[in-house]
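// run 5 | inverse folding | seed 20
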């Protein structure tokens, strides 16, 4: 991984955070994780607190992003502090995350147990502090894994919420991880030209159609690689890939490491 691909600027863990932040994030991004406590959060005058974080109770956990653009403010909620972790970074890799729909633009509840994310975040922070080449690569890997989990959770919520249009409901049902897309055929099946389908899908979901399908496949591949002993080719076959080398290339582009290296890192 080129050194300029992603650079960690600073990071921290504070179990009793009382920080007050009010600023533009100029040229860098941060992923914030509140494991418990309460946070009042506001993006350029659009208060999130009453809906999302101001009354966040102990035992619930949230991720929220900070990024160039809006003025972002957050401060302790009613409880007076929260258990806080964050990492700040910049580099070309972030642009790819944004383009691929991995970057969250809104606060998001942590999918699954809060402690699991705390452990992963702490592991990432340890690698960031270590600072050597391999630790840096592992930190990037862990960060991208968290973003993939968040993107998958957003996609899952989208599938479970009743879409307002029947064509979108049918398409989301079809877009399973082993879905081998013939986008022209999909467009015809839903009575649209392909450019119209692509445009309407992105408008409805915030993610390009091909990226949505790819994210679903990669998320499922990560599960199979981490939880089964299936050979790499069998994983590719199960996900509808006819060429294991093409699967390996797509997986590496999305995750940053090839499937075999990802499996070894999960088993370490």
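// decoded
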């Amino acid at each position: 991984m080129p050194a300029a691909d992603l650079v960690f600027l600073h990071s921290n863990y504070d179990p009793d955070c009382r920080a007050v932040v009010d600023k533009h994030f100029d040229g860098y991004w941060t992923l914030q994780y509140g494991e418990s406590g309460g946070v009042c959060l506001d993006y350029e005058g659009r208060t999130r607190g009453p809906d999302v974080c101001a009354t966040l109770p102990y035992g619930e956990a949230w991720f929220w992003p900070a990024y160039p653009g809006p003025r972002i403010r957050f401060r302790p909620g009613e409880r007076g502090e929260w258990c806080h972790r964050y990492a700040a970074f910049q580099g070309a890799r972030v642009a790819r995350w944004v383009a691929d729909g991995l970057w969250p633009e809104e606060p998001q509840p942590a999918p699954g147990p809060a402690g699991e994310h705390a452990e992963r975040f702490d592991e990432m922070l340890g690698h960031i502090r270590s600072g050597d080449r391999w630790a840096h690569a592992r930190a990037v890997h862990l960060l991208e894994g968290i973003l993939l989990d968040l993107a998958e959770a957003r996609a899952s919520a989208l599938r479970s919420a009743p879409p307002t249009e029947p064509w979108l409901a049918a398409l989301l049902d079809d877009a399973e991880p082993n879905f081998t897309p013939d986008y022209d055929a999909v467009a015809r099946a839903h009575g649209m030209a392909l450019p119209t389908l692509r445009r309407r899908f992105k408008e409805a979901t915030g993610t390009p159609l091909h990226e949505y399908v790819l994210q679903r496949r990669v998320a499922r591949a990560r599960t199979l690689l981490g939880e089964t002993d299936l050979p790499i080719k069998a994983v590719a076959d199960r996900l509808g890939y006819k060429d294991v080398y093409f699967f390996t290339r797509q997986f590496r582009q999305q995750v940053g490491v090839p499937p075999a290296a990802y499996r070894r890192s999960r088993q370490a």
